[in-house]
UniProtKB/TrEMBL annotation:
Pfam families from the UniProt entry: SpoVAD
Name the record gives this protein: Stage V sporulation protein AD
GO molecular function annotations of the record: acyltransferase activity
PROSITE patterns in alphabetical order: PROKAR_LIPOPROTEIN (PS51257)
Superkingdom of the organism of origin: Bacteria
Length: 341
């Protein structure tokens, strides 16, 4: 075991045990009707979910997802020493208002759709550094709230470009603890902001792909690992276009990930659902991780997974002013451990 906490330029090695002891997710009906539908146990009745606004519905969804994860361990919110959360709305209001009801120390995060992995790394650092023993991490997104804020209100019926992605209505939550368990976070890597000049908010997969590729390549160079050393490499929400671009960029650096690489935005929807380039959103990776990927690790489909959260760091103001879209990508290595064997 490598006892250095820093490996290479950007990779972090967790010396003390950091486990994902529990997780939960809530998704919308469109997500439930997708290829992973049978894995999503909790579904909204509709995207309002008996609330007056979509924003209230998203906040309720995020809080419900975190409460589901806590209930699985017979925990209550006050058992958490820290709560780390983020979403896509201005001033991350869904996370803020959830933290208001939990009443525990709170760190609000924003990394666009990379926020989940950002939170998992920071939560793991808190535990690895002996600053806490139980940390909650959660993110959310909602189709209508994101479209209204970042592009066009859905009521306008604006035609979507074929490069556009469909924001996932979903939330995933995770309880991290300092104990040996079946699901362990063993390494993390913070990415760098990379901007290749793409300014089209309807093509965010292409804007994020270079950052994802850079983080994946840097991880291999830092650790000395090869793509075949990891069972699954999965990005957060590059979608169909960004996934191909990322694969090709990594290939150009001498690493072939074509046999074990996928994307949460590709997995969550079927092409027949008219989502164009796939899924996106801060709730995309978190709901797919909690609903599908972690259960598959527990079922021994894979033994190790590098999850690379991808984010497009734009805002309505920057887009309206013609700014390009900076991309960011962070990664965590999650491994299945045999307990008592």
């Amino acid at each position: 075991m490598n006892l250095n906490r820093k490996i290479g330029n950007q990779t972090i090695n967790f010396i003390n045990p950091v486990s994902i002891s529990s997780f939960g997710c809530v998704v919308g009906k469109k997500e439930k009707n997708g290829p992973l539908g049978k894995w999503f146990e909790h579904t909204l009745d509709n995207n309002y979910d008996h609330e007056k606004t979509w924003e209230k519905s998203e906040q309720k969804m995020l809080q419900s997802a975190m409460e589901i994860a806590l209930e699985k361990k017979n925990y209550i919110p006050s058992d958490l020493e820290y709560f780390l959360a983020g979403d896509l709305l201005n001033q991350i209001i869904c996370s803020n208002f959830t933290a208001r009801s939990f009443g525990v120390p709170y760190i609000g995060l924003y990394g666009a759709c990379s926020t989940l992995v950002e939170g998992l790394i920071l939560g793991s650092m808190i535990i690895d550094g002996n600053y806490g023993q139980k940390v909650g991490v959660a993110t959310s997104s909602h189709y209508e709230t994101a479209e209204r804020q970042l592009r066009f209100p859905t009521e306008l019926g604006v035609q979507r470009a074929m490069t556009a992605q469909w924001t996932v209505t979903g939330s995933g939550s995770f309880v991290l603890e300092n104990q040996i368990d079946q699901l362990m976070i063993t390494q993390g890597i913070f990415g760098k902001v990379i901007d290749m000049g793409i300014s089209n908010a309807m093509n965010m997969g292409a804007a994020m792909a270079p950052a994802a590729a850079d983080t994946i390549v840097t991880y291999f160079k830092d650790t000395g690992k090869k793509p075949e050393d990891i069972d699954l490499i999965v990005t957060g929400d590059l979608g169909n276009i960004g996934r191909v671009l990322c694969k090709d960029l990594v290939q150009e650096e001498g690493f072939d990930i074509s046999s074990n690489f996928t994307d949460c935005g590709v997995l969550v929807f079927d092409p027949s659902q008219d989502v164009h380039a796939g899924g996106s959103g801060a709730g995309c990776s978190s709901s797919v991780l909690a609903g599908y990927l972690l259960p598959q690790l527990l079922n021994n489909k894979w033994k190790s997974m590098l999850l690379v959260g991808t984010g497009a760091l734009l805002s309505p103001t920057s887009s309206q002013q013609g700014e390009s879209i900076p991309g960011i990508a962070h990664g965590v290595l999650i491994e299945k451990k045999v307990i008592g064997g």
